[in-house]
Amino acid sequence: MQRISLAHGEGGELTHQLIQEVFIQSFGHSEQTQFDSAILPIPSQTIAITTDSYVVKPIFFPGGNIGKLAITGTVNDLAVSGAIPHVITAGFMIEEGFPIKNLKEIVHSMAGEAEKSGVNIVAGDTKVVEKGSVDGLFINTTGIGVIQEEHRLKPEMVQEGDSVIVSGTIGDHGIAILSARQELGLLTDVKSDCASLNHLIHELLAEIKGIRIMRDPTRGGLATTLVELCEDFHFTVEIDEASVPVRKDVQGACDILGYDPLYLANEGKVVMIVDSNDKQKALDILKNHELGRNASVIGQITSSHAQSGKLLLKTAVGTTRRLNRLSGQILPRIC
Amino acid sequence: MQRISLAHGEGGELTHQLIQEVFIQSFGHSEQTQFDSAILPIPSQTIAITTDSYVVKPIFFPGGNIGKLAITGTVNDLAVSGAIPHVITAGFMIEEGFPIKNLKEIVHSMAGEAEKSGVNIVAGDTKVVEKGSVDGLFINTTGIGVIQEEHRLKPEMVQEGDSVIVSGTIGDHGIAILSARQELGLLTDVKSDCASLNHLIHELLAEIKGIRIMRDPTRGGLATTLVELCEDFHFTVEIDEASVPVRKDVQGACDILGYDPLYLANEGKVVMIVDSNDKQKALDILKNHELGRNASVIGQITSSHAQSGKLLLKTAVGTTRRLNRLSGQILPRIC
Q: Where does the record place the PurM-like C-terminal domain (chains A, B) (predicted)?
């Protein structure tokens, strides 16, 4: 068994073998959880649910692969909603001919990342399609987390003067993917930042009462994420370009290619709005953690309960301009 | 906006429009559930989780489409585990150029079927990939159901003499898909049986204490489903070929093509093992319901607690032979 064949997707003998030899091998198997479905107790009454499909190209990239990304992305979605990630399901759509060795490596990464972040992969599904009907491998992960009442976020408490903090440098994932494609002849050693933030976020929520909202600025980047927050919750944010942490090589690549790091995807960063009284404490916790070393206060809420919220950027040259959502195509298949 | 473009998948302005105009339009939107993730109370402590990706080809077929199938498939997976289907997430992987009109029709079917079966679509995700990187549209659905303690299935109670019942004719979905492909020049008016069985199953579980196990015989067909049960729970089943309900036109198509209906996929059938004292009551309930009119007792448990369980078929000519899992390719992309 070296390559995936259509028969691996038929639900018969070969599907059984594939599940045993590739998935159960890495994900394990228990009374509670079978690969096709799971029945399990949930230790609370309020849960968070999120789903994402991963179509990243290439499947392996500096700093990770599609499997690691599928776990970290779903874990982070749950964590920023104030939930403790609990279980994840995984659906694999595989192209006929895909090397089993690569599939095993990807599944192994998923298992490792799931263990690190303390989630169980409880249910799965595999489909195989003919060569040319999917580009290698897509993965869907759906995550369920348990909301901790005492950590429930309070976006309605956002007020003028609140601080906006980002946990580290932005744009790393976007540039790492671009660079891995080598489409642009771009050679950098930027690695994707893809990482599970749940332990860091849990520590922040446990220590700091004044965290109003958190988001993970993935597709569309930091700017799009903040625009959506401004619109959804009717406040205005002003961010200070000079305070936004960007790696030199990421900025360099952006300058050459004409990209703005504010619109590039991140896969291991959290942006949060915090009571300004708590900002130093939040920064201390972040900087003390491997995944938050480059955290920075990047701006503040300049008006709350606005009719229509907006995102403003104070540029390095002192002018202020409004930022909108990412518009049009910039980087397809970034996650 | 007539066709999907890559920019619809970038997480920016066009993604926002797509979600508003296509998904929220059909799925609705509430305080609790946003399209990207959801936070909601779950009315019990034990839940069932299942995930499936749908890659069916063609996307529209007699009796349904990929969207309806994604809902019924996930609802049925939950229902046969004894759970009340509660919420569903939906992940869309869309090919650039896909007609928005078709996407709307599919999403509309999903919303209609979800309403019929009483589940809420609470979270979603869309990814767009370049032309040629996926064949039209794949959908992943993950479902969460609530286990009713009093309806918990008891596979460990299976004993010699228990009856095996199937809720209707088998192989309809398989032949409908084959026929829709027109690859074989086959013209039948067989429709897919795809339907949500949760209300029927709920009624059965409420009325009959002696239901030991239920399964939905999808990929791999009735035979593969029964072989898996026999192996997992160490019993032997003998089914009587003459009692297995098969539509005449399905049997005719199978005869011409060399398929065995026992190995063809079903998307609206349940097979169950029931205390033989309850078999008549189960049949009555089934036959009284639109989705169970052709229900039939097809066999019985001939030994339980066997070292290695197996599936035996008493053929129409009186011989008995062992059936195995589906082996090798028969019908790719059936669901």
A: 159-306
pLDDT confidence of residue A11 = 76
Q: Which amino acid belongs to residue A198? A: N
DSSP state for residue B134 in the 8-state scheme: B
| Strand order from edge to edge, sheet including A211-215 | A211-215, A271-274, A163-166, A296-303, A236-240, A311-314, A320-323
Interchain pair A135, B138: CB under 8 A: no
Angstrom distance (rounded) from CA A100 to CA B77:
28
CA pair distance A222, A274, nearest whole angstrom = 16
pLDDT tens digit sequence for A201-256: 999 999 999 999 999 999 999 999 999 999 999 999 999 999 999 999 999 999 98
Chain A hits for B123, Cβ within 8 Å: 49-51, 142
Give the C-alpha separation, B42 to A310, whole Å: 35
Alpha-carbon span B104 to B101, nearest angstrom:
5
Whether pLDDT at B67 is above 60: yes
Both tokens of B55, joined, read 């890659």
- Tell me how crowded residue A297 is: count the other CB atoms within 10 A of its CB: 18
Contact B263, B170 (CB under 8 A): no
Q: Helix (H, G, I), strand (E, B), or coil: what is residue A108?
A: helix
Residue ranges and CATH numbers for the domains of chain A are 6-151 (3.30.1330.10), 155-323 (3.90.650.10)
- Choose the mutation target among B127, B131, B326 for the interface with A, i.e. most A CBs under 10 Å: B127
Inform me whether the C-beta atom of residue A42 falls under 8 Å from chain B C-beta atoms.
Answer: yes
Q: Which pLDDT score is estimated for A273?
A: 98
Cα separation, B63 vs B137, in Å, equals 18
Q: Report whether pLDDT(A145) > 80.
A: yes
Task: Tell which phi-psi region holds residue B294, choosing left (phi > 0), alpha (psi between -120 and 50) or beta.
Answer: alpha
CA–CA gap between residue A258 and residue A262 (Å, rounded): 12
* 3-state SS, residue B83: strand
**Span B242-250, mean pLDDT?**
96
pLDDT band of residue B198 (cuts 50, 70, 90) is very high
Residue in A48, A326, A332 nearest the CB of B130: A332
| Mean pLDDT score, A87-98 | 94
Q: In a 10 Å sphere around its CB, with 0-12 CB exposed, 13-18 middle and 19+ buried, how is residue A200 labelled? A: buried
**pLDDT at B225 exceeding the cut of 90:** yes
φ, ψ dihedrals at B282, nearest 5°:
-65, -45
B296 at interface of A, judged by CB pairs closer than 8 A:
no
Pairing of strands A46-54, B37-41: antiparallel
Residue B166: exposure state from Cβ atoms within 10 A (0-12, 13-18, ≥19): buried
- Which residues contact residue B300 at a Cβ distance below 8 angstroms, ignoring those fewer than 6 apart? B161, B162, B163, B164, B237, B238, B276
Q: Is the pLDDT of residue A117 over 70?
A: yes
Q: Tell me whether B258 touches chain A (CB under 8 Å).
A: no
* Residue B318 vs residues A161, B133, B239, B242, B321: alpha-carbon distances, Å: 84, 51, 12, 10, 10
Residue A270: CA count within 13 A, CB half-sphere: 33
Residues on chain A touching B144 (C-beta within 8 angstroms): 49, 144
Residues B237 and B76: their CA atoms lie apart, in Å, by 23
- Are A144 and B53 in contact (CB < 8 Å)? no
Preceding peptide of B58 cis, ω within 30°: yes
The model's confidence at residue B70, banded by pLDDT at 50, 70 and 90, is very high
